[in-house]
Write a structure and sequence with these properties.
Number of strands of chain A: 3
Protein name (chains A, B): MarR family transcriptional regulator
CATH topology of the largest domain in chain A: Arc Repressor Mutant, subunit A
Organism (chains A, B): Streptomyces cacaoi
Pfam families (chains A, B): MarR_2 (PF12802)
GO molecular function (chains A, B): DNA binding; DNA-binding transcription factor activity
Structural class of chain A: mainly alpha
Largest sheet of chain A: 3 strands, antiparallel
Keywords (chains A, B): DNA-binding, Transcription, Transcription regulation
Oligomer: homodimer
Strand order of the largest sheet of chain A: 1-3-2
Number of domains of chain A: 2
Chain lengths: ~180, ~180
DNA sequence: CGCTGGTTTCACAAATTTATGAAGTTAAGG
DNA sequence: CCTTAACTTCATAAATTTGTGAAACCAGCG
């Protein structure tokens, strides 16, 4: 059956602002789902495939950052096939990993540790590709042409950016572990 | 975000080939165009609309970073309509500006100063949007829930990233002017 | 072995995105 | 004013991307 295992609503009073307290199962529909969809939309806008974005967002909003195919399928009202495809992509780009719960034939898809970290590293890759293409183009155009100048500067910028980005990530690690972990 | 993670060493591949000197008109076809298309493909892969990417790449590879609609249309073998749309988009996101040469009815589209700078700032915008959506979601989910925890951390990461990114850009400015300008 | 729950693959339908020709605008130049 | 070069808008055709149902797979379990 499809009863959402592991999604026991946690009750929390004393919540911030105007949270009256109770968390009902309907909360998913009224509160979580809108967020998931909005976030997915943002990601899509930013270039990620739609379904992958939805799955990713859904995991992000789930209690323990992990859901089974069936759960995703239900929450997103999407076919298992669609989930399968999205999940394959996300695993490919290292945003999630798939885990086989021993004793059960269902699989759990869970957010990679430090997802955002990974995501930024990924961005780093596309920067690298752009940089390489420009570097090659520089060879074709000749570094002495006006266009070549511009390209050269761009290449420099990208290299600079990549170095800096790496350091930013290092700094984040420091920042992070410095406060609670 | 779209591509995978992992840390590809930022290797500079093959040095630019020998530049024999002459530049013929056919050079555009044989040398420039392939670069333009490849670069556009990279940008498309990274999420930019195809035609916009082509126009942008074309401008980047042009001698003075500026071309008329007709020139773009010819070099890209695309209809004026397509160019028009692409150009509108690029202006929208502040990557190019349009200039009306007084006395001529044609318009010139030129790369914005410090394009890459702008581009990164733009990326910053999408980061901001994601951050905001997450922040809102945090309100809905409650910061005391497991998902809320995760979200909160993500928001922090994004804020950190944005601050750092700003500084990186400042540093680039310094770096840049420190060497020649 | 042979089911059976669970996931993946495949062919195809639906939705979206792109690009185009043609008609519509706008303003320079007579 | 009227012409006309140049850009834009619009409806539509073409290409791509998405998502789905149904069939194929693949272990575990009895």
């Amino acid at each position: 059956m499809t009863e959402a295992a592991g999604h026991t609503p946690h009750h929390h009073e004393g919540a911030p602002a105007e949270d009256t307290g109770e968390r009902t199962p309907q909360d998913y529909e009224t509160r979580v789902s809108p967020f998931v969809e909005q976030f997915a939309a943002d990601l899509t806008e930013a270039g990620m495939q739609r379904m992958a974005a939805r799955v990713f967002a859904c995991l992000l909003a789930s209690d323990d950052g992990a859901l089974t195919s069936a759960e995703l399928s239900e929450r997103l009202r999407a076919s298992p096939a669609a989930v399968s495809g999205a999940v394959r992509y996300l695993a490919q780009v290292n945003l999630i990993s798939r885990r086989r719960d021993p004793g059960s034939r269902r699989e759990r898809y869970l957010l990679h540790q430090e997802v955002w970290f990974t995501a930024v590293a990924g961005r780093d890759n596309v920067l690298g590709r752009l940089r390489n293409t420009m570097h090659t183009g520089l060879g074709e155009l000749g570094p002495d042409t006006p266009a070549g100048q511009r390209l050269g500067e761009a290449v420099e910028f990208f290299e600079f950016l990549q170095r800096e980005l790496d350091q930013v990530l290092v700094r984040w690690r420091a920042h992070r572990s410095g406060r609670s972990r």
